[in-house]
Design a protein that fits this description.
With 254 residues, the protein is α+β, with helices and mostly antiparallel strands. 29% of the residues lie in helices and 32% in strands. The strands form two sheets. It has a five-stranded antiparallel β-sheet with strand order 2-3-1-4-5. Strands 6-7-8-10-9 form a five-stranded mixed β-barrel. Strand 7 and strand 8 form a beta hairpin. The longest helix has 22 residues.
Length: 254
Amino acid sequence: MAEETATVALNGSVFLDDFSKAITHLQQLMSALSAEVVSGADIDWIVSGLESGSAIVTLKGGPEVKPSQSKRVVGAFEKVVKALQTKSEIPFGKKVADPVHKLCGLMNGRITSIRFETRRLDAEVFSSHKQSIRGESDSVNSFGAVRGRIQSLTSRGTLRFTLYDAEDDHAISCYLREGSEDVMRTAWGKLAFVEGIIRRDSGSGKVSTVRDVSQDGVQVVQDEGIYHWRDAIGCAPAVKGSISAEEAVRRGRE
């Protein structure tokens, strides 16, 4: 069975000082949730994934933590995620709500949004200005596929991996169905199409997560490389006396 994980992603340009604050607030949040739902337990959380592109941090329970305990804490984290989805009050006390608000308060123009994820659901929070423009729904879900390079796995035996979009290299969180983990053995580092339930930011149109990815939902494709177009050089020799390509471009510009 896959391990329970909690993920927070900072989108935009993430400076070191902002990232340091985010880690502190995330630690406070997980500690507060642990105190709420697992009384008396001292739960340590391991960073099982750390990716650039959107500064994504994934946590799982340490080796001494009982699976039932980490499952309860991640379940409480999901309640926070659902509250953020519906823009409703966080169903815990001040010690939980404060670090959530501090995380959301890191959006400063450089950080454009913050996404909270588990393997079952996610919520992306935008600045209050953007929210007022977009109204109640900040995302669009649909079945589809996205093309990119699979570069990061949270850890062995988990269901989450990161795909870097082929168009602009932004990081996309992808979640496999239970029992589909073996597909990653041959897909890591490869260019691939990943098919599943896609969540897009309704403002930018960018994909942020892909869920319910099946064993057949990851299709590795031929990586042609960015310079393979050079193989076509000389396939159509210039007619004697014709102008050069450089001259043709120059004339076109003029």
